[in-house]
Design brief:
about 140 residues, alpha+beta, five-stranded mixed beta sheet, 10 strands
Length: about 140
């Protein structure tokens, strides 16, 4: 078993034992199993998948980092939300606002542009998770 902690600036979202966890990294999705080699990696917006006793739980993840040791995984992200907490209408509005901001590229500072791009990536990750159940 792995001890998994998922922490956002607001709260500890998850703190329990799991069989495995899959993380969205800059180099693609990676799966962590017990006795994993020590690793620190960046997390990008996407699907964070927890598995325990053959049961799978999906969370939308934002930007952050993961610290992995032999039997511990600590994920520090700016967003971690289970599918049932995601409100599709609010996410769609955030996506549209980010797209409008990005369309005004020439009037934005580098920081404003980077923030809008990050918000768009997080919104798209949340929508993928929210809409996933419809395809199954």
């Amino acid at each position: 078993m792995l001890h998994l902690q998922i922490i956002t600036p607001e709260k500890t979202v998850f703190d329990d034992e799991v069989d495995q966890v899959s993380l969205p990294t800059e180099n693609g999705q990676i799966t962590i199993l017990p006795h994993h080699v020590a690793l620190v990696t960046s997390i990008k917006p996407g699907e964070l998948i927890l598995k325990k006793h053959s049961k799978e739980e999906l969370l939308a993840a934002g930007f952050g980092f993961a610290q992995i040791t032999k039997d511990n995984v600590k994920v520090l992200v700016d967003l971690a939300a289970p599918e049932e907490e995601l409100e599709e209408k609010a996410i769609e509005e955030a996506k549209k606002a980010a797209e409008v901001a990005l369309a005004q590229k020439h009037t934005l500072s580098e920081e404003e542009y980077a923030t809008a791009a990050a918000n768009l990536q997080k919104a798209l990750a949340q929508l993928r998770i929210k809409r996933r159940r419809r395809r199954i």
